Amino acid sequence: MINHTITYKKKIMIDATTSIAGPKESTGPLGHYFDKNLNDDLLGQKSYEILESKLHASAVLLLLNKTNLKPSEIDLCIGGDLNNELYATNFAMRELNIPFLGVYAACASYGLSIIIGANFIESNHVQRVICSTSSHFSTAERQFRFPLELGTPRAPQSQWTTTGAGAMLLNTLKGNIRIESATIGKVVDFGVKDVNDMGAAMAPAAFSTLSAHLSALNRNPSYYDLILTGDLGKRGADLLKLLAKKNNLKIDGKIYSDCGVLIFNTTNDSMGQGGSGTACATLVFNGYIYKKLLDKSYRRVLLITTGALLSKTSSLQNQTIPAISHAIAFERI
Questions:
Q1: So where are the chain's domains?
Q2: Can you tell me the distance from the alpha carbon of 238 to that of 236, in angstroms, rounded to the nearest whole number?
Q3: Do the beta carbons of residue 123 and residue 109 sit within 8 Å?
């Protein structure tokens, strides 16, 4: 491993992906790319947390249905969410009877789960791995900010947590998209304390991982058809471009975008700076980018998932917000 970057020798392929999107996500610019679109973010459940868990399980079950596989044919599930003790994922997995590893890297959890899954396959321990994540606007609001009943005004620098779930099946048996390499991020903290300004907290971590990845593999940004961050939002994406420019890395609108910017119509003031949440990168990659790789609109894509590692405890103690970012390079073969 050079500069915390792994180059995979095996052909670790994506067999299939799934994406289940909430109401706001379904009416956004990418709505027609998702497998399932919800018109209700509660669906008659007793709580939003229960609904999120059911969404997570549904994304995995839909993946099994797509691939005509039984749970017994899956070697490992890896997944996470934003709830305390990974509530949504743990309760989803009790329905599946598949070996499971729960992971947490905040909104970078999808990238973390994919890297771990790829490493298990590379080391010959497993053949089939499912990676999955979920998030829900209402569960995240009361987890990290305020009770919904307060009706607290949203700050202009804030983002809208994505409601949805998605899953990906990795294997060495079939597929047209391979995982070529991955860079494991370092925890980076630039001293941001504003819990509403996640983009500013995460952008330095995204830049750190991007720089390490390019340096390790001796590549320029133009090597990729698309460099895509997980959920920096408009402000965070602009900050990443500024950091890149100051360090002589050329990333512009032709090769760079952000899942949080893509998933919502950001001219809508209620969406703030765009999307965030564990499901943000999951939905955009699984529903949109994966299809663009399949139809050869893109050949090489670098997905840089981003996560702010704050908690209710750290916020109450007036701590700064550390962040993490993990990168995965996908290649159409």
A1: 5-171, 177-332
A2: 5
A3: no
pLDDT in tens, 11-62: 999 999 999 999 999 999 999 999 999 999 999 999 999 999 999 999 999 9
- Per the CB < 8 A criterion, the answer to whether 213 and 174 are in contact is no
Question: What does CATH list as the number for 177-332?
Answer: 3.40.47.40
Q: What is the pLDDT of residue 155?
A: 73
Task: Give yes or no for residue 270 having a pLDDT over 80.
Answer: no
Q: What is the dihedral of CA 183, 17, 285, 111, to 10 degrees?
A: -30
Distance CA 331, CA 177 (A): 6
Domain 5-171 has CATH 3.40.50.720: no
Classify strands 160-161 and 226-229 as parallel, antiparallel or unpaired: unpaired
For residue 279, which amino acid is it? A
The predicted model gives 144-173 an average pLDDT of: 82
Question: Going by C-beta distance under 8 Å and a sequence separation of 6 or more, which residues neighbour residue 212?
Answer: 3, 4, 5, 183, 185, 186
The pLDDT-based confidence of 74 (bands split at 50, 70, 90) is very high
Residue 115: phi and psi, rounded to 5, are -65, -45
Tell me: pLDDT of 8 over 90.
Answer: yes
Of 135, 57, 51, the C-alpha closest to 95 is 57
Percent of all residues in the chain with a pLDDT value above 90, rounded to a whole number: 84
